[in-house]
UniProtKB/TrEMBL annotation:
Belongs to the class-III pyridoxal-phosphate-dependent aminotransferase family. It holds the Pfam family Aminotran_3. Keywords: Aminotransferase, Pyridoxal phosphate, Transferase. It comes from Vibrio tritonius. GO terms for molecular function: transaminase activity. Transmembrane segments: none annotated. PANTHER family: ALANINE--GLYOXYLATE AMINOTRANSFERASE 2-LIKE (PTHR45688:SF13), PTHR45688. This is Aspartate aminotransferase family protein. The lineage of its organism: Bacteria, Pseudomonadati, Pseudomonadota, Gammaproteobacteria, Vibrionales. It comes from the Bacteria. Its cofactor is pyridoxal 5'-phosphate.
């Protein structure tokens, strides 16, 4: 039996929902089913037909306004004028690949590398996070001489052959690579009272030992530092250090997947990994760096990258093209000029405080956790057992959609609301979100 994908299927439209749709929406879903590959998924039992976005808001075809509390790809806000202007200006000049000289890729690389630890001093560019993580795995294998990759149990790192083989969140229909090993995520909520850093380091060592016992040489540990697909598990700042020490002691590298926690989102640091005071060997990024324009990056310590790049030429045709680099530069400028790291920290703290009032009010709200504007809101059957309440979470998502608030779920049980708005999210939006949650929980738990 194929297990549904936790990130693709948990909150998705399915054929049995079609009868409840209005005629226009039904015609679009029918046309989509006819023309597009069956692997695609739509959010919600009643899919939303969006036609416009601005900042943290979206509008549907009927003109109804929604609050976006999920989309980190438009990281600084939908249709940000700085990105539009930068892309439009560069499109009028030139767009070509990296085998010609151009200043944009060099200027951006100098600036983005200044945000990294000094040891991370080389840059490469692609179009998607999947491609960045694919290359990172190849680098790990070249550097270590091994093939074994460790990820967490519900990790998602991409859709290429290599990355899907290290993305258990895609479900059992997508087999993992035989050299992939899984560790339980650092769930501080359920591991309360334990030294989670030590516990997690021991989990990684156990999987490295299992690899050795099966003739597999360890290559690296690949993780996003907020463990978003595992249910948004930021933990205490610094707890990851022991695990990364184990990785290095065993000859592997740490790949920090910053597609979701990077670019000021956690507030506490520009990069998610930086919350922990660790220095990755490789850092990967994705489309949020260009506010949705197809660009991704890989940043590495030169001696680690050299094991791959001194032997194998790499060329991603339009990775790092001038238009994409213009978008990335505009995003970086906006993050600085609008002080979005500080904004994420301050607004995130305000939001978390308000969400915690719902935790106190409702027995079904087990935990509220997060860093900056990346918050997990966990639904349980009761606070004592901490048993996941997937049914309630999915009904809650649908009620929020009806109240014009868009978000989704995460975690192995699909019971954690993943609250991850564009960084344009403001203090006045907190009332809309928390009010909609309060009303919906009241309606669903009467």
């Amino acid at each position: 039996m194929v297990v549904r994908s936790t990130i693709m299927d948990t909150n998705s439209f399915r054929a049995e929902h079609a009868q409840a749709l209005d005629s226009h929406t039904r015609s679009l879903t029918d046309k989509r089913a006819k023309l597009l590959g069956e692997s695609y998924r739509l959010f919600y039992r009643r899919p939303v037909h969006l036609v416009k976005g601005q900042g943290q808001y979206l509008w549907d075809a009927n003109g109804d306004k929604y609050l976006d509390v999920y989309n980190n790809v438009a990281s600084i806000g939908h249709c940000h004028p700085a990105v539009i202007e930068a892309v439009n200006h560069q499109m009028h000049q030139l767009n070509t690949h990296t085998r010609y000289l151009h200043e944009r890729i060099l200027d951006y690389s100098e600036e983005i590398l200044r945000t990294m630890p000094s040891a991370v001093n080389k840059a490469m560019y692609m179009c998607t996070g999947s491609e960045a993580n694919d290359l990172a795995i190849r680098i790990a294998q070249a550097y270590s001489g091994g093939t074994g990759i460790i990820v967490t149990q519900e990790a998602y790192h991409g859709t290429s052959q290599l990355t899907s083989g290290a993305s258990p969140a895609l479900g059992s229909g997508q087999p993992l690579a035989p050299t992939t090993r899984l560790v339980a995520p650092p769930d501080h909520y359920r591991l309360a009272g334990q030294d989670v850093g030590l516990w997690f380091a021991q989990q990684i060592q156990a999987q490295i030992d299992d690899m050795k016992a099966n003739g597999i040489q360890f290559a690296g540990f690949l993780a996003d530092s907020i463990f978003s697909s595992d249910g948004v598990l930021p933990g205490e700042a610094g707890f990851l250090r022991a695990a990364i020490d184990v990785v290095h002691k065993n000859g592997g590298i740490f790949i920090a997947d910053e597609v979701q926690p990077g670019f000021a989102r956690t507030g506490e640091a520009f990069w998610g990994f930086a919350r922990h005071g660790i220095v990755p060997d490789v850092v990967t990024t994705g489309k949020p760096m260009g506010n949705g324009i197809p660009i991704s990056g890989l940043f590495a310590q030169d001696h680690v990258l050299a094991a791959f790049s001194d032997q194998i030429p790499y060329f991603n045709t339009f990775g790092g093209n001038p238009v994409a680099m213009a978008a990335a530069q505009a995003v970086l400028n906006v993050i600085r000029e609008e002080d979005l790291q500080r904004h994420s920290l301050d607004i995130g703290l305000q939001l978390k405080k308000e969400l915690q009032t719902l935790q106190e009010k409702y027995e079904c709200v087990g935990d509220v956790r997060g860093a900056g504007l990346f918050i997990g809101f966990e639904l349980v059957t009761d606070k004592e057992s901490k048993n996941p309440n997937k049914a309630l979470a999915l009904d809650l998502i649908e009620r929020l959609r009806d109240k014009k608030v868009l978000t989704s779920v995460a975690g192995p049980h699909g019971n954690v609301l993943k609250l991850r708005p564009p960084l344009a999210f403001q203090a006045q939006d907190i009332d809309w979100l928390v009010g909609a949650l309060d009303e919906s929980l009241h309606e669903l738990t009467l």
